[in-house]
Design brief:
Layout lengths: L2 E6 L4 H11 L7 E8 L2 E8 L2 H10 L6 E7 L14 E2 L5 E9 L2 H10 L12 H11 L5 H10 L3 E9 L6 E6 L4 E4 L4 E4 L11 E4 L4 E6 L2 E6 L4 E2 L4 E2 L15 H7 L1 H13 L14 H6 L2 E6 L1 H17 L3 E6 H4 L10 E7 L5 H12 L3 E6 L5 H5 L2 E4 L12 H21 L4 H12 L1 H9 L2 H11 L4 E6 L3 H16 L2 E6 L16 E6 L7 H13 L3 E7 L3 H6 L2 E5 L7 H20 L17
Parallel strand pairs: 16-17, 16-18, 18-19, 19-20, 21-22, 21-23, 23-24, 24-25
Antiparallel strand pairs: 1-4, 1-10, 2-3, 2-4, 5-6, 6-7, 7-8, 8-12, 9-10, 9-11, 11-15, 12-13, 13-14
Bound molecules: 5-amino-5-deoxy-1-O-phosphono-D-mannitol.
């Protein structure tokens, strides 16, 4: 989604803004712009398309200045165009604003302001903000801060804002409501950013702005106030991430790097929660043992890939505990009449912790008195701040838009949670729990083995990459895997892909099967009761001439005999096999996308975190 960077300090802000925006490119955008205070002038440059276009325009008409704001825009209101790109200004051209989020009542505000002579140059909701500030100054606001505060009180919606004004050339303002924003504190210089990686190479000292807070940044330091103008203490925190975590480290794309990081990420989670022993650490449970023992129901809420993780978590939690677990999509739950009461635990799964639909749903649940447990990857995110307890996935920054390591980390966190809850409730025999934990520990090595087969997977992907469509089949624990594999393929190779529970195929999609359709069948096994059923489904595909690509357990010759191509993975306990099988599907999608020549890290139309409804 959109990205914000701002700078105030002794250096020239322009290269800092461009560098920060480059580090946010992964979030997805379609235009970019900067505003810089320069010799009593407010200079703005904007361009559609990639940042390199903006840089080229700045080479033609250079600008420099020690206070500036920059933005990458992902269009919501108004097409991707230069006039709609941020920053936007007021009528006098003295105030410039960059904005992430949505001003829901912008049309009414725009009509009101236009009736009083304000002229609007874009189709965006954002443009009302500088005009509102101008309006408040004209109405007698004593300072920029006062005008910003009064202007924002007239808006409804969500925002992260960076604001500069010629009237206060030594000041940078920032404000937040519902969209993430941080301030970075350096030595005599300060930054703002919508995401930590934007400024990680410049400072690790950050202040996470809270909802409804406005920050005033001057070289001497930063002050926070709430919407009533009351001072708020700014808590400076140290970000533990290394700057290199957000670099490609020799891989051709972030996505490939992140796929290869999975064994390490899962080992970290295992070590963190199990150490060398077999016992889950109590903090994984979050709430005390009595709470878990008396709990009856969990409602898991999430979107996209995280929803597939939640589907897996439901199967595992229901299998290992006596709990009833339901899943819902954030975008559906928030408008549904689903019954939730204080006896329901809400489980939110989100990589970013900023997904608007997930956040709106959990807020609703919280208001109804439910406790909130989150599985999240981003410390300081909105979800983390609102949760009663957080189970971190510790996957490190995920830059590739298509989620990979965050997904397997979510699966691992859910597996650890299900085992811990099963144990504490007494729903799972200790010997079985121990056996399962030993099997869980084997998962990172099994993934490593799949990564070592990347070349075989590449050949298969290249052979099948050019068809218009593909079908993914899996059952039980691997039905979510099939959904996730198809999603990866759609996201990065732009090839239509559909996923079905294999047993459902004969209820409709079987009509699609012909000698051209690649059908990716997940049929791994240890003692899986659905293995034979899955093989029957694969035979139904075979009988209709479909081109079968099988994900099979090492040594399974029966599957290889039916399939046109087989990707072998190591034997892994059925319950945990999704963590291994999905890696083969990630690579399959990756190499198909590469063969199709797409922009893998920044697929078209997609944003890394969907902070609008
Ligand atoms: O940050 P979240 O996990 O809440 O994001 C949810 C989805 O937007 C996200 O998983 C999306 O589907 C990814 N592009 C998947 O690769």
């Amino acid at each position: 989604m959109c990205g914000i960077v701002g700078y105030i300090g002794p250096a020239d802000s322009v290269p800092i803004l461009v560098d920060g925006l480059t580090r946010l490119e992964y979030r997805g955008y379609d235009s970019a712009g900067v505003a810089v205070l320069q010799d009593s002038r407010l200079e703005i440059r904007r361009h559609t398309g990639r940042l390199s276009n903006l840089e080229a325009s700045m080479q033609q008409a250079p600008l420099t200045g020690s206070v500036g704001i920059g933005h990458t825009r992902w269009a919501t209101h108004g097409a991707p165009s230069e006039k709609n790109a941020h920053p936007h200004t007021d009528s006098t051209g003295r105030i410039a604003v960059v904005h992430n989020g949505i001003i829901e009542n912008y049309q009414a505000l725009r009509n009101e302001l236009a009736a009083r002579g304000h002229r609007f140059l874009s189709e965006t909701d954002t443009e009302v903000i500088p005009h509102l500030i101008e309006d408040e100054l004209a109405a007698g606001a004593a300072s920029m801060l006062e005008a910003i505060r009064r202007a924002l009180a007239r808006t409804r919606g969500a925002y992260a804002l960076g604001i500069v004004s010629l009237d206060e050339p030594e000041t940078l303002y920032a404000a937040r409501l519902g969209s993430p924003l941080i301030a970075g504190v350096g030595d005599g210089e300060l930054y703002i950013a919508s995401d930590v990686p934007a400024i990680l190479n410049r400072t690790r000292q950050v202040v996470y702005l809270g909802d409804g807070q406005i920050a005033t940044l001057r070289r001497e330091g930063l002050e926070l106030v709430d919407m009533a103008g009351k001072p708020v203490a700014a808590e400076v925190q140290t970000v533990e991430l290394e700057a290199e975590a957000a670099e490609r480290a020799g891989f051709e794309t972030f996505m490939l790097k992140e796929i290869h990081e999975q064994p390490r990420v899962l080992r970290t989670l295992l070590n963190l929660h199990l150490g060398n022993g077999q016992q889950d650490t109590p903090e994984i449970l979050g709430f005390d043992a009595d709470y878990w023992r008396s709990l009856r129901r969990i409602m898991a809420i999430s979107c996209g890939t995280a929803y597939h993780a939640a589907m897996y978590g439901r199967l595992l939690l229901e299998g290992l505990t006596g709990l009833a677990v339901e899943t819902d999509l954030g975008s559906e739950f928030r408008y549904s009449n689903r019954k939730i009461d204080p006896a329901t635990l809400v489980l939110a799964v989100s990589q970013s912790g900023e997904t608007a639909d997930t956040l709106a749903s959990v807020r609703m649940a919280h208001e109804r008195g439910c406790r909130l447990l989150s599985i999240c990857n981003v410390a300081g995110s909105s979800l983390v701040r609102e949760s009663d307890h957080v189970l971190y996935t510790h996957a490190g920054p995920e830059i590739g838009v298509a989620s990979t390591k965050a997904y397997t980390a979510q699966l691992m966190a859910l597996a650890l949670l299900a085992l811990a809850v099963g144990r504490v409730r007494g729903d799972i025999a200790p010997e079985l729990a121990d056996e399962m934990i030993s099997d869980l520990r084997a998962v990172p090595d099994a993934i490593h083995y799949v990564l070592n087969r990347a070349e075989i997977i590449r050949e298969i992907a290249e052979k099948h990459h050019d068809g218009p469509s593909s079908l993914y089949l899996g059952r039980r624990y691997n039905f979510p895997t099939a959904l996730e594999g198809a999603l990866k393929n759609k996201e990065i190779s732009y090839q239509h892909a559909e996923a079905y529970a294999a047993g459902e195929m004969k209820h409709g999609p079987i009509a699609l099967i012909n000698e051209y359709l690649p059908v990716i069948c997940i049929c791994t096994r240890t003692r899986d009761e659905v293995y034979e059923k899955t093989i029957s489904n694969v035979r139904e595909v075979e009988a209709r001439g479909g081109r079968i690509i099988a994900i099979a357990t090492d040594g399974d010759t029966e599957v290889a005999d039916i399939a046109e191509d087989t990707i072998y993975v190591p034997q892994t306990r059925d319950e945990f096999s999704p963590m291994v099988n999905v890696v083969a599907l990630q690579l399959l999608a990756y190499y198909a996308a590469q063969a199709r020549g797409t922009d893998i890290d920044k697929p078209r139309n997609l944003a890394k975190s969907v902070t609008v409804e």
